[in-house]
Write a structure and sequence with these properties.
This is WYL domain-containing protein. The chain is an alpha+beta fold. It folds into 3 domains: 105 residues, no CATH class; 95 residues, Roll (SH3 type barrels), CATH 2.30.30; 82 residues, no CATH class. It has 11 helices and 14 strands. A 5-stranded antiparallel β-sheet has the order 9-8-7-6-10. Strands 12-13-11-14 form a 4-stranded antiparallel β-sheet. A 3-stranded antiparallel β-sheet has the order 1-3-2. Helix 1 packs across helix 6.
Length: 336
C-alpha cells in the first residue's frame, strides 16, 4: 500500500530532525518510508526535490552539508534551533488540550509509526536520537501511561463527541468485579488525575454530575442525539470535580486486612494492630487501616500478594482480587 504524500513528508521531517549529522539522499531513499516506492533514481530525485521545496515553503529550515569528513556527498538535516518555536503562552483550556494531544502521541497507533521510522534509520546506519523540539519527548510504550492503555479508541470517540457537543452512550462498570451497565452521558470534558483518565459530564440516567474512569468504560461508545445539544455549565471546574471524587474517602471509613507474620511491614506501620489470627494455616495479624484513596490502598495491598488479604470492606476486597486475577492472566500470557 502506497504511503501518502503527507505521511512521507512527516517521515522525512522526523528523520531530518533525529539525525546528529547530515543524511545523504541515497540513505533517505533507502531508510525513510515513502521513498523506496520510487521505480528508479530519476523518479526519486524528482520526488525528493519537490518535497525539499515544500518543506522550505512551509518555513522548515532545511540545511545542506557534507555527510561526513570522509564522505563529501551532499547531505541534509533540519536546524533544530531554527525549527524550535519561541515561548508559547497557553490558557488553561489550551494547556489541557496540549496535554491530551501529548498523551495521544504516545498511543500505540502513533508511537509504533514513530519508533518504526527511527528503527529503520538506525538499521541503515544513521545516527539518530529522540526528537527534541523545545522539551524532550520521551518515546516510550503505553506502559508509562497505564490509565489510558487499551482505552485509546474510547478517548478518541469521547473527544469527538465533546467537540461536537453530542451525548454518548456506553457500557460502564464501577469496578472490575461489577457487571457493565449502560450509561447515557452529556460529556463535558476529559481530565487526568494521578495517572488515571476520567470523563466528566451529566449522567442522564442519574440526573447528576458524574465521573467515569476510562479504563472502566466498554469499547462500544456511541454518540447519540443531535450535535450541539450538550451545554457545558459556565465556569464548571472539571479538574476540581475529579479531584473531589478520587481524593480521600470520607473520614472514619476503615479497612481490616490480615497480614502474614514477618510480611507486609508497610501495612503494619500504616495501620493499627487488632490482634493475631490464623488464616489458611498461616499465622498473622489483623490490621485496621484508614481508607484514604481506595485505589491507592488496593494497589499497595495487591503488591503483597498472598501475604495481605482484605477482610473488609467487600468492595476493597473485590478490587484487590480483580487486580490479582489480572496480574495472573498477564503472567499466563507471557508463559505461553
Amino acid at each position: 500500500m502506497a504511503i501518502s504524500k503527507v505521511e512521507r513528508l512527516v517521515n522525512l521531517v522526523i528523520a531530518l530532525l533525529s539525525t546528529r549529522g547530515y543524511i545523504t539522499a541515497e540513505k533517505i531513499r533507502s531508510s525513510v518510508a515513502g521513498y523506496s516506492d520510487s521505480p528508479n533514481a530519476e523518479a526519486f530525485s524528482r520526488m525528493f526535490e519537490r518535497d525539499k521545496n515544500e518543506l522550505r515553503d512551509l518555513g522548515i529550515p532545511l540545511e545542506v552539508g557534507k555527510a561526513s569528513a570522509l564522505n563529501p556527498s551532499e547531505g541534509y538535516r533540519i536546524n533544530r534551533d531554527a525549527y524550535a518555536l519561541p515561548p508559547v503562552e497557553l490558557t488553561a483550556d489550551e494547556a489541557a488540550a496540549v496535554a491530551v494531544a501529548t498523551r495521544l502521541w504516545e498511543s500505540p497507533e502513533l508511537i509504533t509509526a514513530t519508533q518504526g521510522a527511527l528503527l529503520k534509520l538506525r538499521a541503515a546506519g544513521v545516527d539518530v536520537e529522540p526528537v527534541d523540539i523545545g522539551t524532550p519527548v520521551a518515546i516510550a510504550s503505553t506502559a508509562g501511561m497505564p490509565g489510558l492503555r487499551g482505552s485509546e479508541d474510547v478517548l478518541g470517540v469521547l473527544l469527538s463527541a465533546i467537540d461536537s457537543r453530542q451525548a454518548v452512550q456506553f457500557p460502564h462498570r464501577s469496578s472490575r468485579a461489577e457487571p457493565y451497565a449502560t450509561r447515557t452521558v452529556e460529556p463535558w470534558g476529559v481530565v487526568t488525575d494521578k495517572g488515571r483518565w476520567y470523563l466528566v459530564g451529566h449522567d442522564r440516567d442519574r440526573g447528576a454530575t458524574r465521573t467515569f474512569r476510562l479504563s472502566r468504560i466498554g469499547a462500544e461508545v456511541t454518540p447519540i442525539g443531535p450535535t450541539g445539544a450538550v451545554a457545558v455549565p459556565e465556569g464548571v471546574d472539571l479538574r476540581a470535580i475529579v479531584s473531589q471524587v478520587v481524593s480521600e474517602a470520607p473520614i472514619g471509613l476503615r479497612a481490616t486486612v490480615w497480614v502474614a507474620d514477618g510480611r507486609a511491614t508497610g501495612l503494619r506501620r500504616a495501620g493499627r494492630l487488632l490482634g493475631p489470627r490464623q488464616l489458611g494455616g498461616r499465622s498473622g495479624q489483623v490490621v485496621e487501616l484508614d481508607i484514604g484513596s481506595s485505589d491507592r490502598l488496593a494497589r499497595e495491598i495487591t503488591g503483597y500478594g498472598a501475604d495481605a488479604i482484605v477482610l473488609q470492606p467487600s468492595s476493597l476486597r473485590e478490587d484487590v482480587l480483580a487486580r490479582l486475577r489480572a496480574h495472573a492472566a498477564i503472567g499466563e500470557e507471557r508463559r505461553q
